[in-house]
Amino acid sequence: DFYEGFHIQSISAILFIYLGCITNAITFGGLLGDATENYQGVMESFLGTAMAGSVFCLLAGQPLIILSSTGPILIFEKLLYDFSRCLILVATDASFIIKYILRFTEESSPLSLASSSSMMLSKKMIVAFKYYPINSDFKRTM
C-alpha cells in the first residue's frame, strides 16, 4: 500500500486533500481565534488537524478523507468557551431553564447553533462598521 502511495495519481490526490485540509484549518482557525480570544487559533487548528489526520489515516485505512474544522465545530467550541467562562451558570444549574423554552430536545441544538452564529456574525459586522464607517457625506461626481 505504501508503494502505491508514490504513484503520480496518488500524489496529486494527496496534494489536493492536503490543500483542502490546510485551507479549512486556516479559515476556521482564524475564526476560532477571534471566538476564543486567540486561545485557540490557526496554528492550534492546523496542528490538531495534522495530528488527527495522521492517526486516522494510519489506523482507519482511509487516507483520503478530510479531517478539519467545520462551521458547527466552530460554533460548538465558541459556545463551550463562552460557557466555561461563566461559572455562575454551572454553579446555579441554570441549564434547567431550557425545558421552559423548547418542547423537544432535538430543537435545542439547531436553535443554539442558529442564534450563536447570528450573534457572531452581528458582532463581526459591528466591528467592521467601526473600522470602516459608512461615509454619509459622499457626493458622487460624473
UniProtKB/TrEMBL annotation:
Superkingdom of this protein's organism: Eukaryota
Name this polypeptide is given: Electrogenic sodium bicarbonate cotransporter 4
Lineage per the UniProt record: Eukaryota, Metazoa, Chordata, Craniata, Vertebrata
Gene designation per UniProt: SLC4A5_2
